[in-house]
């Protein structure tokens, strides 16, 4: 199975929509970093980025354990990303006509997503059984899962004999085998 199915299909790369180029429009009144910092709760930012989100620019203000998003023109705080915005972000990343089946926040660890929690899970109503994982902190797409990925992950678990984390292949079961 692992050799037969292309890894790009497992990773749902065929469903990924190519992002459009986002250009800065000099005529728009972008807020300065100073104005954004006045709106931020972050005491001493480590990093400030101007990045794109849903075809508009946002400031990403980062501290060690906290990230805030602000619209670069209005200054509106966009984080934490809510259900509607997470759904819109997920839709912007998928190609084709897939409709959203449901969206919900995952706060406890699940085997399908091993990243930072909480995370939005957006399920699509398509043949592949696709789910996208969106960060409530910064709105980034953190993972794509599908029925093929789930089968692959199960096979991987059997292959490396790690029946809990599915990541460790340096353990006594495998050495013994």
SSE layout and pairing:
Layout: H1 7-10, H2 33-39, E1 47-53, E2 56-62, E3 67-71, H3 83-93, E4 99-106, E5 119-125, E6 131-134, E7 141-145, H4 147-160, H5 172-176
Antiparallel strand pairs: 1-2, 2-3, 4-5, 5-6, 6-7
3D structure, described in words:
The two termini are 21 Å apart. Strand 6 and strand 7 form a beta hairpin. The chain has five helices and seven strands; from the N terminus they run ααβββαββββαα. By secondary structure, the protein is of the alpha+beta class.
Brief overview, please?
With 177 residues, the protein is an alpha+beta fold. It contains 5 helices and 7 strands, in the order H-H-E-E-E-H-E-E-E-E-H-H. 23% of the residues lie in helices and 24% in strands.
Give the uncertain stretches in residue-range form. Answer: none
Strand percentage, roughly?
A: 15-25%
Mean pLDDT across residues: 91
Largest sheet entry: 4 strands, antiparallel
Number of helices: 5
Q: How does the overall form come out from the CA principal axes?
A: globular
What is the radius of gyration? 19 Å
Report, as a whole number of angstroms, the end-to-end distance: 21 Å
Structural class: alpha+beta
Instruction: Give the H and E element order.
Output: HHEEEHEEEEHH
Number of strands: 7
Helix content: 10-25%
Instruction: Report strand order across the widest sheet.
Output: 4-5-6-7
């Amino acid at each position: 199975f692992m050799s037969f199915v292309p890894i790009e299909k497992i990773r749902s790369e065929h469903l990924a929509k190519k992002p459009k180029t986002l250009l800065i429009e000099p005529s728009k009144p972008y807020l300065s970093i100073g104005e954004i910092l006045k709106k931020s709760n972050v005491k001493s930012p480590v990093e400030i980025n101007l990045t794109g989100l849903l075809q508009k620019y946002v400031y990403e203000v980062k501290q060690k354990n906290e990230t805030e998003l602000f619209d670069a023109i209005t200054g509106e705080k966009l984080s934490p990303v809510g259900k509607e915005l997470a759904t819109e972000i997920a839709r912007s990343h998928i190609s084709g006509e897939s409709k959203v089946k449901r969206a919900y926040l995952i706060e406890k660890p699940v085997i399908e997503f091993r990243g930072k929690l909480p995370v939005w899970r957006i399920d699509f109503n398509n043949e592949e059984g696709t789910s996208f994982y969106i960060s409530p902190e910064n709105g980034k797409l953190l993972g794509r899962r599908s029925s093929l990925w789930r089968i692959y992950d199960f096979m991987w678990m059997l292959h490396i004999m790690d029946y809990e984390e599915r990541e460790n292949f340096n353990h006594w079961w495998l050495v013994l085998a």
